[in-house]
Specification:
- By secondary structure, the protein is an all-alpha fold.
- The protein has 2 domains: about 60 residues, Helix Hairpins, CATH 1.10.287.110; about 140 residues, no CATH class.
- The protein is built from 11 helices and no strands.
- Helix 5 runs antiparallel to helix 6.
- The protein starts with 7 loop residues before the first helix and ends with a helix.
């Protein structure tokens, strides 16, 4: 895949007005070429494809992402005219960009964690990957509150999206632990706890130790449930 592609649409090789069906067909076509399990696989290219599909497959994420793109210079692929969505103010657009960043970083960390755990435990990738979407979806919630908390913890402007994702993960873990008290030994609960702990470690690699400590550190959900670590 060409590293100079400028948008998620370019990564999938489709026009910006492509329907979801076209997007899905393009994703599957490229995934067959680049999936790491194949002889022609390319993990980096597959990661780019997953990023593109994660954003473009969801109407809300796609609409928010489209607002961050520069206008197209060619009229060839211009979609039919439709009522324009109101432009976001500068502050709202900034928060929206951080929201997309938090979701993307969280999704990448979760997918990487799921693949590592599947290899480690010698199970199919889908065993953990089925949990990824729900967890990653939560990273974009309450972005303004999470950015404020990240700033309070000492995050720099460049770290805000990542710190917000970590705060989102922490907030996801608390109700999970509360709901899992009665079924702590259930295999599905154990897998989710393993995944949450590994996602934190993956995300935390991108920030300083001081900031990670200020954010509360790895919630260690598996240890909280069973006394064991990942």
């Amino acid at each position: 895949m060409n590293p100079k592609t400028s948008s998620f649409y370019d990564r999938l090789g489709v026009a910006r007005n492509a329907t979801r069906k076209i997007l899905q067909r393009a994703y599957r076509r490229e995934a067959l070429r680049h999936h790491p399990d194949r002889q022609t696989g390319d993990a980096a290219a597959m990661g780019e494809l997953n990023d593109a599909w994660f954003v473009l497959s969801d109407p809300a994420r796609r609409a928010a992402y489209d607002q961050t793109l520069e206008p197209e210079t060619s009229l060839q692929d211009t979609p039919p005219k439709s009522p324009r969505a109101p432009k976001l103010g500068r502050k709202a657009a900034w928060f929206d960009g951080l929201k997309l960043q938090a979701i993307r970083l969280g999704y990448e960390a979760a997918l990487s964690a799921s693949q590592a755990l599947a290899r480690r435990n010698n199970v199919q990738h889908s065993t953990y990957e089925l949990l990824v979407e729900e967890i990653a979806e939560s990273f974009g919630d309450r972005i303004e509150d999470r950015v404020r908390l990240a700033r309070k913890a000492g995050a720099t402007p460049l770290d805000l999206g990542l710190a917000a994702a970590l705060i989102g993960l922490k907030e996801y873990c608390l109700p999970f632990l509360e709901a899992s008290k009665d079924n702590e030994a259930d295999p599905a609960t154990i897998r989710t706890a393993q995944l949450l702990d590994r996602i934190w470690d993956n995300l935390a690699h991108g920030i300083s130790r001081d900031l990670e400590t200020a954010l509360g550190g790895n919630p260690r959900t598996l240890r909280a449930l069973t006394g064991r670590r990942v």
